[in-house]
Design goal:
Blueprint lengths: L2 H19 L3 E10 L2 E9 L6 H18 L6 E6 L10 H6 L4 E10 L2 E11 L3 E8 L2 E8 L3 E6 L4
Parallel strand pairs: 2-3
Antiparallel strand pairs: 1-2, 4-5, 4-8, 5-6, 6-7
């Protein structure tokens, strides 16, 4: 297991009782390097959405627990936030919750001269994601290899 995955897994295990005690759930945990800085990001959610107080309470308790355990030797910046409205669907549990929802898929390379696709999330498996795309009065299913996808996220309707 890569160092990054190990840190994310251990952080998620520490975070779980904290979010549950605050009436929230874990959406995702990521340990990433941006520029010269490492970030440990915890995204939390609850049915009616999280607010700044939820994030603050979880952040303080999580920070204390991370200090106690001290398993990440690198200096890092801790962030606790909502995954946002246009949340990325990085894991199977995210895709499962979003079946039937409208999503945006961006690919690394153009497919039929485009890199952005919007449609209804129909299905997924370990290697592919299928969305239903409207093309005028017709609809068609389009299957994407997960390896070709840069990001999948919920679309924003205003």
């Amino acid at each position: 297991m890569a160092k990054k995955d190990s840190y994310e897994e251990r952080a998620e295990a520490l975070l779980l009782p904290i979010v549950e005690a605050n009436g929230c759930e874990i959406y995702d945990v990521e340990y990433v390097k941006e520029g010269s800085d490492w970030y440990l990001r915890a995204y939390i959610d609850k049915p009616d959405g999280v607010n700044i107080v939820d994030c603050e309470n979880v952040s303080r308790a999580f920070s204390e627990k991370l200090d106690e355990e001290d398993f990440i030797p690198d200096a890092y910046i801790l962030e606790v936030s909502s995954p946002g409205l246009g949340r990325a669907l990085r894991k199977d549990r995210h895709l499962e919750k979003s079946l039937g929802e409208e999503v945006e898929i961006r690919t690394y390379k153009p497919i039929d001269k485009q890199k952005e696709f919007v449609g209804i999330l129909k299905s997924y498996d370990k290697d592919t994601i299928t969305i239903e795309i409207e093309n005028g009065s017709e609809t068609k299913d389009m299957v994407f290899a997960k390896a070709d996808i840069a990001i999948v996220r919920l679309t924003l309707d205003f």
